[in-house]
Amino acid sequence: MRIIKILLSLVVILVAITIAAPFFLEPNDFKEEIASAVENATGRKLDINGDLDISVFPWLGLKTGKLSLGNRAGFEEKSFATIESAQIRVKLIPLFSSKIEMDSLQLNGLALNLQQLKNGKNNWSDLSAKSDNSSNKKPEPSDPPKIAALAIGGIEIKDSNIRFRDALSSQDLKLTQLNLQTGPLELGAPVDISLSTHVSAQQPNINGSFEITTEFKANPFDGTYQLNNSQIVVNLKGKTLPAGHLKGTLKASIAANLITQKLNLSKLTAVSDPLTITGDMNISKIFATNPKFSGEISVAEFSPKKLLNKFKIAIPTMADSKALDRASFNTNINGSLQKINFNKLNLVLDDSLIQGDVSLLNKKRKSISYNIVLDQIDLDRYLPPAATQTTNFSIIPIAIAAPTPAALFPVDLFRSFDMSGNIKAGQLIMNRLKIENIDIKINQQRGFLKIEPIKGLAYEGNYLGHIRIDARKKNGNTPLISANENLSNVSIGPVIQIITGKESLTGKGNISAVITSRGQSISALKQALNGEIKISLANGVLKGIDVVKMVQDTYAKYKNIKSSADSGKDETPFTDLSVSFQIRNGIMNSQDLVITSALPLVRGKGSINLNNNTLDYTLKTSADAKLVELVGMDKKLTGVPLRINLNGNLASPAYSVDWVRIVGRVLEKTQKKKLLDSLFGKKKKKKTSPATTSPATQAAPVKPETAAEKKKRKKREKKEKIKNLLKGLF
Fold this sequence. Notes:
This protein is of the alpha+beta class. Among the domains are: 1-131 and 149-186, no CATH class; 424-664, no CATH class. It is built from 11 helices and 39 strands. The strands form 3 sheets. It has a 34-stranded mixed β-sheet that branches. A hairpin with a 2-residue loop joins strand 18 and strand 19. The model is unreliable at 388-405, 684-689, 691-699 and 722-730 (pLDDT under 50).
């Protein structure tokens, strides 16, 4: 606005010279008088270096050479404004009817220097002061002549330069090669305007060009102003610009009413590769500190990946190379500078549709509230590729994500705003697990993020989860993470298959985990992992662990024979399986594994070290008749306890059975039995000769013992044996 006022002042000066010039015989002879008149009007010295050329009919016109208007005292530049040449023409005949019909005003080589010092003093305010002072003079008795009509053929400014320097903000703005051209100017009628220039600035550092074309219509009497079919084309470079380069086109029609303080932007279109934004916007109370607005905004389909690359934002490697390839957006928008509401929001991201309402509050503390519904989303597409380490022998399958150099949790971002809302999803895939009909509540206050409760359906059962990330300042840069997860009545087979790639465990039951950890990397999180995991399953199969084959293989090795027994399934069916793990600093300890099956009861205990992915576990069972037959063991081993040791790398642990100890215990048991038999057991009957005896020598028939007599005899024989044993000992 200041520049426009200055330009209009120069126009007034030129008009005054044009009207006065015909009264002089030779205008060049009166340069000093003209300069003096200008100095009285502006307080600045006018240097007329070129010739003045006047025409009278049919155009009353003035053409000048170089003109220079002096600067205000105390400023370094000698000239405030210079013009290489100028021309202004007014039709002579209409002047007699108080009508002013001007040809286009032409200014060539305008150089305008605007400057503000550190004390706030500038070099243009005194010009307006002169004008204000002159307005305070008493008017002449006679009324000034009335203008019946005013029409200007247009304004044409070529090859001009404008410089603005502000010592207060260290700004230095230069507009070079400036060209401005308008159509005919007539009060109340639209006028075409086009402007182009090169821009260079400091604080911030920007270089480039922009072009403006519009149709301007003004009616100051009712306060309405219009810019119709406006277009701005920019091509700017600078470190402070997004991606260091802003190239795009903005189109809109603008209508403003300064009396009602309303502004309407219609047919808004902003194009800057890869974005195309369209919309309409209504703004009220435009002069207030917190104006109101409402409208609709749409973003045509674009590539988020391309947009992030343009802004030089590093995109981590994601599991799906096609992730972030497609997005579009539209919403109704209303609110103020303090609160913005996005209603009926529709966001398409790849294959997901997100709908709902979002509110942004911008007061002392920024906050977001929302109510979102999405059809389905696969979060795994956007996560780093996982290097999955699994084992056929692990009760708990472990998936270890590939390490990333950046911090896992942006604590500064968490602390910068608050958030609360609800998310519902038809289907969510996370860590390759599929959860349906999800309902999630999220609340964050000053860096304390609570995602709870999380409800959903998963694999024929129910999922209930609680996740907390405490990134408040008291935790420094390593937030505290806690989770309480429950899967109830779930078919575990598909879950294990998804995580490990193999269906190593089947069955239906419950899984719960209450864990805590802290850190900014996967390794740190594992080392700080604490809590408890419980598993209870029924009617399943533990695949990869074949108790029969383990016993058979190790027994064959002990006997140095070829193993022949083979179940062919490499699995152990069970009717019930239960186990719990107590986790301390990344080490999972278990003391209560119980597997019930058709074979003898299996118990287990040991540890799994998540820090180095090792296993040290022991399975205990016993050899019943069925197991002895399946393995082909010596029947003397029936009933002996079996101990299977699992240890080594979690992905491929070794297993062993200490048969030397088992057989040794069997021999020890046998020897003890023989000793006891010799002490308390029955003696072997002596074989008698089959020789016949004569009737004379045959003994007389013995009268059968009564029960009382037999009991007394047994007691007597037992006492006799103990007495003999004691004699042997002493």
